[in-house]
Amino acid sequence: ADLRRRHGYFRESAGTGAWSGAHVVDSGVVDAEYGPRDVPPESGIVMIGATPWVCNYNVPVGANPREARAAAPASAEKTDWAANERDGEDTTSRAVREGRRIARRLSERGGGLPGVQAMALPHGQDERGGVVVEIACNLLDETRSGPEAVQAEIARLCAEENEGDSAFRWDVRNGYVTNLTPETILERLAE
User: Fold this and answer.
1) H or E element: which one contains 94?
2) Between 21 and which of 9, 33, 50, 84 could a Cys-Cys bridge form, CB atoms 3.0 to 4.6 Å apart?
3) d(CA 53, CA 7)
4) Directed axis angle between helix 91-106 and helix 147-163, to 10°?
5) Dihedral of alpha carbons 73, 134, 111, 19, sign
6) Mean pLDDT per 10-residue run, the chain (191 residues)?
7) What DSSP letter does each residue of 169-185 carry, written as one string?
8) Which candidate, 168, 85, 92, places its Cα nearest to that of 131?
9) Count of beta carbons in the 10 Å neighbourhood of residue 72
10) Residue 11: its pLDDT value, please?
11) Which residues contact residue 117 at a Cβ distance below 8 angstroms, ignoring those fewer than 6 apart?
């Protein structure tokens, strides 16, 4: 994660909520363990890295504006709260910004669970038009902090936010693992 941060791997695309990433080689020179030091501009290079297996665990969290909650329609009619603006910031951007605070508190780097890296991303709208923010996590060592611990900690952090002065009422949904477990990978390789 530190390498990705240093080289700007994850960058938001012009405030759209879409993400892109790339490694940029400064001045055409790399400090590689193998291969050429100078990068030929006509052919480029391939960079390969390996890390231990990481569990990717994501938890969608509904972010319902507190003022909209009281004024919510009684019918199931969809309301476009995400398009409303307040203080020049749309509801989705504000929810993601506040979701980043939750993600930071969840992550080891922010004083949270050991072996957890987390970020908040826009994840669309729910069936009533409320904003959904996804807390996307890398669990670097499931023996220290597994999906159940992360789910419980996100629920605890969102409950604290609901008690505080957050602009949103946070509704924690069920999380899910996005990648294969090491056991499943081995089973598939054996087939």
Assistant:
1) helix 91-106
2) 9
3) 22
4) 120
5) negative
6) 56 54 60 76 76 92 76 43 54 95 97 97 88 96 95 98 94 95 90 91
7) EEEEPPPEE-S--HHHH
8) 92
9) 15
10) 55
11) 1, 107, 108, 109, 137, 138, 140
Residue with tokens 């995400």: 82
Model's pTM, two decimal places?
A: 0.70
The encoded tokens of residue 137 equal: 């996590």
**Burial of 139 (C-beta count, 10 Å sphere; 0-12/13-18/19+):** buried
Which token pair is 9? 């791997």
The helix, strand and coil proportions of the chain, stated in percent and rounded to the nearest 5, come to 30, 25, 45
Model pLDDT, residue 23:
53
Task: Report which secondary-structure segment, H or E, holds 85.
Answer: strand 85-86
Contact 153, 79 (CB under 8 A): no
What's residue 80's pLDDT?
A: 45
Query: Residue 68: in which H helix or E strand, if any?
Result: helix 66-70
